[in-house]
Structures are given as C-alpha cells and as structure tokens.
Amino acid sequence: MNDDNISRRTALCNHCDAFIEDPGSPTPPHILRSDHTLTGAETTHIRALIEEDERLLKEYEESISWHRNVADKVERARKTVEERLRKRRVVVSALRRLPVEVWDEIFSLACQTIRLGNATIETTTHSTSQTKSYPCNCTLPITRLCCMAANYYLSDIDVRSLLRIYFKYSATAPLEISIWDSNIDYGTIFTSVREYHDRLDKTVVEAYQLIFQHISRCAKLELQVNWQALSQKQDQHYESGWFWEGCQNGAQSHLRLRRRQCSKPFWYTSIHFVHEATPRDVYGLSGLCNTLCLNPRVEVFSVRGLRMWNTAEHPQSAHVMELPSLRDLKIYCGHPMEEWLHFVELFRMPVLNSLWIGSELSLDDDVSEHQYHTPPASFTSKLHHFANSLQFLSLHYNPVYYNEPEITNLVKNLPNLVHFRFTTFAKVAGISLCTTHFLASLQVACGNSDAVSSSCILAPKLERLEIREFNFCPRSETELVEKVLAMASSRSASALRASGLEKVASLSRVYLWWKEDDSSEVHALDHDSDSEDGHSTSESDSDNKSASSGHLLSASTRLHGTEPSCRPLLYTHFGARIEALERDGTICSIERKAMQWCDDLSVGDDFDLLKFYQ
C-alpha cells in the first residue's frame, strides 16, 4: 500500500463515543459513522438523569464537609480533655513531688561519672558543692548539671535527654547550672583523648543551646567551656554568635565564667557583667589590672599563673581604681611578694571579705634555709586597708614565713578577722604556741612532739586540736600519744569544772595522725564530742596491727564528756599546707531518699526513678 493513498482523519467511534485518530487505513465507512440518532425525548430524559446525579453529588459533598467540621470539633475537644488529664495526673505524680535536693542528686549521679574503656573515674574533685541554702519556700535553688563533658566519655548517658526531663519536671523553680566541657584536665589518664580538647562536640553544643533556651530562669550560671574554640570558631557545627547572645540574655543571673588554657582574656572583653572569673596565665600586673578594669562588677576573682613582670611594666594611674563588688580575691603567683603589693596600691576594694595569697612554689620543693624570709615591712600596713571588711585571710606564700610578733601585729590590725590560716616552717623558726592563746582551732603538721606543750593546754579558747606527724619512732610516738591524752583529760568539761576553770573552753575534738618511720602503716586517733564515741583507725598495706594502734584504741575511750565546739575564731597551719579534716556524714541513697518523700503514693503512680539513670 502506497503512502499516497493513506489519509489521516479524526472520527467518532460508534461504540464508545470517543474521538479517535484514524491512521488512514482503508476502513469501511459504516464503522466510522453513527447509524443511530437519539430522539428528542431520549435526549431530554438523559439530561434529567445528569442533573439528578449532579444534585446528589453536591449533597454528598455538603454532607462530607459538615461531618468533617464535626470531626474536627470532636478531635479538638478530645485533645483539650487529654491535655487537662495529663496536667491533673502531673499534679499527683511522684516526679512532680520530688524535692529539689533529690533532683540535684539524680543529675549529679548521672553526669559526674566518667567512663574511659573499662575504667570508671569519679570526678569528685571537679564536682560542685552539694551545699545549698533555702531562705524561704518561694526561692529554692535547683539542680546544677555538673559535667557537660559526659558526651565525650559516656556512651550510656544522653545529656540532652536528661536536660529535657529536667526542664520538664523542674516547673518554674530558679535554675542553678554549672557547665564543664572537655577543656577540664582530668589527669594523665585522659592523654589519649586530649586531641578532642580543641573542639566542641556537636551534642555538647546542642546541650548548651537547650540550656540557653531557659537562661532567663537561671539564678546562677557557671560556664567553664572551651573559650578558645568559641573565639576562633574551630568547630564548624555551629556559629558562636548564639553563645554570646545567650550569655547576654542571662545578664540578670549570677554569671560565673572560668577560663582554662587560653592566653588572652578575650571573653572578658565580650561580657561585662561577670560576677565570678578564674583566668589563667595572666602576664604581668598590667594584664591583671586590665582584666579587672574590664569587669568592674566582678565579685569573686581567682587568678592562677600570674607571671613575672618588669618594673617598667607597672601601670601608672593618676587615681586609684575601684572594685566596689569584689568580695573574694585569690591570687597564685610566682614572683616576690613586693611585686604583689603594687596591686593593692592600684585598687580600692571596700567590701573585700576574703583574701588568699599563695605562691605556685610547692611546700615540698627544696628550698634552702637562707632563701626563707619574713614578709616585707609594708605588708601588714597594706592589709590594714581592708580592716573594716576582711574576715577570712589565708597566707601560703613559700618561702615567706611568719614569726610571732608579725602574726600578733597582723591580727591587731584586722579587728574583724574571724578565719586566719598561714604557713610557717619549723626548720627555719621554732614553733611558738604562744599565739594559741587567741586560737579556737589549732592544726599542727610536720612538727614534733615538743610542739604539744603546756602552753597549748593553757590556751583558754582552744576547742579543736589536730596534729599530723611523720617518721616517728615507737618511743616518740608513745610520748606524743600520752601528751595528747593528758591534754584531752585536763581540758574535759568535768576536769575544768573541778579545777574552777569554767571560763576555759573544753576540747571538743582531738585528732592525731601519724606515720611510723620507714613504714607504710598509718595510724589515726579521732574523737569528736558531736559523735557518740571517739574512734581510732589504722591503715596499712599489710594485715599486721601495731601495738601502739591497739593502745590508742583503748585509750580513746578516755575522751568522753567533752562539749560541742562553738564557732572557731581563727585557724592556723604550722608547717605543711593541709586542709581541715572533717568527718563524713552518712549519705542516703537516691532511691531511699526518694521513697522517703513518696512512701504515701499508690502503686499506680508513675514513679520509676531507675529509668532516669539510663
């Protein structure tokens, strides 16, 4: 068939009333033509049926629309009742009724444990204090999150989930939060993971952002984060602008900032409402003064690594700069004390309440006797500037030592002083206990048994005595024990009444710690009148118990009848730098404390405390 004989046309199909494309094939004409024509009556009837179907379709659509509106109203009503039911269940929920101190322990327990492989390390040295005050029922400090670095070392705890639970159940109570990130030095065990310290983990940043959504509720916010990473934007997961904006939104809170491993105090220039600051590696008096001038509202300032400066670098000021809010100042420095005195001349601190001055030279460092010296002559007069406000003073500046006249003169110039600690050195100056006549608490370390003399017994205010001794032979050990027991016996309440010395304070606590010569065995005799009985302990790498330890155990029963101590007036450290040793109280478990508050709840309440540890 030739293509010239094929004509293409469009025709109407007789069977389906559809237009089809005729390819031009030789199709019989009767197939493409309609051989039936509708009458007028048939056309009218079909049109009536079409109108009826259109009317029914419209009615169905209207009915569906009406029922849809009703369903929406019913769904909204259902959600309203569901939300009301949830809120009413929350009111009687055990989680809602848990006190804030229980929540504090829950989150501290969950976030303060750091896991590295199979090792578990408790970060007790970096955890915040659990002590809180409750001035009234309307103002309750709430949980603080102590370890935001958990995402680096914990695979079984999601800090973000903990935060969401915490914010959900903490209601409107003011928040008290501490953030610690990977910039914290946890010791040499983390050497293998320290390459992560220069970056901020994405999940940690998301946790920060979650906290900043509630920053307006923060009564106290402490940040110890990777400031260098924030400044240099080393991490590409975020823009650092949100961080500073969040800090600015929390300007009304008691913001505390701490900085580590960063040479420039750039963040001080960005935030001018810091209440507590702890910079490191501040170079020279000029750097220290500039940092303080940028933060005139700082209340607590602690600086470590204060480097040596040249005399030419001393800042020259025509007037004394004022720090009206500074109440706590702690400075560690590695240069002569004369240099530090220039700092006092540049600033006026009218409300300074606590002052700590120390050197970075350890007391264990080898220092020859000729290197020891007394403090500068102007030191006492400089401290007199704080006579109206200073109550707590600690001096641990190696190799400076203090003799009795200097201590007496210093105390006379600070009439409001209630807490005084200093370090002296027995190998340079003999320890004189004449100063114990104004002491309520005495701690002696690295001395000898002659330090406990009759002058200590005659001290009228002495209520607490702690002695630490090293490298004792059995003979001197026995002599020391006998002296301590004799002192405790003569200073008991009954002995003082019998002697007519009612005005003399009785010894409420006697603590003795010593270590035998060339032995790893450690002995301790501890008696506190607040407890039911004194106790003696002996710690050793072997199972052998010395005879002297048994002697102390039997002799400790003689330390009865003493009275509770009053508020101590002054603390003194002789010899080594040691901390006061307080007895640990019994700590109840989380579950026990929680059930103590929830023991009246029914079995059906939604109380499953263990799930929040996971």
TrEMBL record:
Species of the source: Paramarasmius palmivorus
Domain of life the protein comes from: Eukaryota
Biased composition (Basic and acidic residues): 524-544
Official protein name in the record: Uncharacterized protein
Region (Disordered): 524-550
